[in-house]
Write a structure and sequence with these properties.
- The protein is α/β, with parallel strands linked by helices.
- It has eleven helices and twelve strands.
- The strands form two sheets. It has a seven-stranded mixed β-sheet with strand order 2-8-7-6-5-3-4, sandwiched between helices. A five-stranded mixed β-sheet has the order 1-11-12-10-9.
- Bound molecules: pyridoxal-5'-phosphate (PLP).
- Pyridoxal-5'-phosphate binds next to helix 4.
- The site of pyridoxal-5'-phosphate has 14 residues, from helix 4.
Amino acid sequence: MSKFLSKRFEKLLPYVPGEQPQDKKYIKLNTNESPFSPSNSVVNAITAEEVQKLNLYSDPTAHNLVSAIEKYYGLDKGSVAVGNGSDEILAFIFNAFCDDKKGMACPDISYGFYPVFCQLYNIRYTAVKTDDKFNIKVEDYNKINDNVIIANPNAQTGIMLSLEDIEKLLCQDKNRLIIIDEAYCDFGGQSAMHLLKYYKNLIIVGTLSKSRQLAGARIGYAAADKNIIADINKIKYSFNPYNINRLSIIAGVKAMENKEYFEYTRSEIIKIREDTKIKLKKIGFVYTDSKANFILAKHNNISGERLYAALKEKGILIRYLCDLRLKDYIRITVGSAKQMEAFLNAITEIVKEKDLCEIHK
Ligand SMILES: *Cc1c(COP(=O)(O)O)cnc(C)c1O
């Protein structure tokens, strides 16, 4: 830390992204990216001609991209704002609608960025405990006046909250925003998008990083009532008007339009996820009912940390979560069928070695 850093950031603990090692080739199952490449329609749209236009700023309204997202979800014009990844959209939302008086509440097990934004913007933060199976109990939010953010399916666990429960949250207090982060929704969750018609206190956040193969393009969005979207854009225009670059706008439009590739890739992920679960069960793992593109699993007698280290040695990266309640677990991104076969072979060996050690002890 330099002597120049503002006092307000002295204690700030930044978000720690999953490893992106550049040294050797790992099978990467640690950051919930898609194992599929972007579709040909995306690849072919990034032409030399478009690259030659990079001397010009991008469209600050990102009109084509906003329209493509509105069209896909059947939303009115003006219902969508876009950001440089949904992380930026989340930053805008936390900044725009929360402060030290109107705080943010979220489940104790969730996306690690939420408490970081609270620290960054000096927002009161409340973690609401999930039950012993990591389920969110909406009754627990009844008395909370703060805004509420819930990833659905939830981050880390993949557990889905029903739309009925989301409506209960929305009705508990109309003077509070309910933000539903649907980063993982396309892998078997249920989108709350159609509820926007009925509730003015709902914001849906989405990303093209997980189910549309564009993590590296950095595109996220918010969908909400037009006045809320105008507020989000007010923050955006006070921060970085050209937040989506020219090439990402083009890629994002094509990714939203290509329904066929989207449906194919997400159904593959769902299939591979369920197949992997069955195989993990056979070697002694238990897991949550994940409707996301990852599996949160634990083995009866090998700690998450040991599994992480043993897999890394075999060239496979998964996520080990330091959270106290998740320390026995590992989180495995659902990769391609081939990647999962390598993962299952490696983890079967690790479990066998461990069993042998137990016998010899
Ligand atoms: C991955 C993820 C994000 C961030 O996605 P980007 O659009 O890549 O910034 C946001 N929320 C949750 C719950 C996520 O898992």
